[in-house]
Amino acid sequence: MSAILTVTFNPALDMTGSVGALQPGDVNLVQNYTLHPAGKGVNVARVLSDLGATVSVSGFLGADNQDPFSQLFAEHGVADHFLRVPGVSRTNVKLVENTGRVTDLNFPGMAVDPTHIDALTETLHALAASHEWIVLAGSLPPGVTTEQLVMWISTLREAGKKVVVDTSQHALRAAIDATPWLVKPNEAELAQCLNESISNEQSVLLARGEQLFNQGIANVVISRGVDGVLWRDHQGWLKAVAPAQQVVSTVGAGDSLVAGLVSGCQAGLSKETALRQAVAISALAVTQVGVGVSNHENVNQLSEQISVSPVELSVHAQ
């Protein structure tokens, strides 16, 4: 199998802290914390590596605090093609309450100039020759426009690559117009993208997802937290729900889902089997801080407990 490339435009050092109950406007004492390299594409790459895939990474990385990222890539056998940019990659703060609720403080990241953008375009063109699966993930840093994102997606798609996109807000809206092979918004991201208030009614989500599929996106995946995952492809809609887990942190659960889906699809698994595996990996991700698959047997056992069923699209919801 060919290698999988993940591209993180705006990586971050994630500082994840545990608090009892967040008190806005007051002093909050953090019980414990971790600091580790992250960013959606970085997280996807780490999980893919744990699943046995051959993985490459690229994007923009701050030269002044690159060491933790370089160490992570070396430890996991990931081929590092990140472009080093003057400055520091951002630090994001995740505050996890005892209830499992997470408050994200995501910073904008360092600015990228046209020279760096041109260099990444050349890098992606070169890497595309040996990577059939390319995951573009996360937010865009200052200096990178949505038009540039569309150009990258379109170029890779026209080269016959399976382009997977996991982003949000304006970037997601632009990406959808470029019709990648797969998109994975969650409920809130889908609502923001479509500029409308979407209830969490399954029928409404299905209808909106159906619109994206009819627009030309071959795989539309909508993650719904404890309510499971919806996946539309040429075979129709499937819904998967995992048994309840003891939640430590939900950070990285969506990235783990993307990694599981790409891994399963690349391996040629059936849609149901790939979905079971991906949802199991995502469900186990909430039981830990950070991402990674340390025990494959746990994934296999939980996969057997995932509820998977076809879903019919209501005519009235279309």
UniProtKB/TrEMBL annotation:
Residues 22-296 form the Carbohydrate kinase PfkB domain. SUPFAM superfamilies: Ribokinase-like. PANTHER family: 1-PHOSPHOFRUCTOKINASE (PTHR46566:SF5), 1-PHOSPHOFRUCTOKINASE-RELATED (PTHR46566). Transmembrane segments: none annotated. This is Phosphofructokinase. The keyword NAD does not apply. PROSITE patterns: PFKB_KINASES_1 (PS00583), PFKB_KINASES_2 (PS00584). Keywords: ATP-binding, Kinase, Nucleotide-binding, Transferase. It comes from Salinivibrio costicola subsp. alcaliphilus. It catalyses: beta-D-fructose 1-phosphate + ATP = beta-D-fructose 1,6-bisphosphate + ADP + H(+). Belongs to the carbohydrate kinase PfkB family. Catalyzes the ATP-dependent phosphorylation of fructose-l-phosphate to fructose-l,6-bisphosphate. NCBIfam families: 1-PFK, pfkB. InterPro entries: 1-PFruKinase (IPR022463), Carboh/pur_kinase_PfkB_CS (IPR002173), PfkB_dom (IPR011611), Ribokinase-like (IPR029056), Tagatose/fructose_Pkinase (IPR017583).
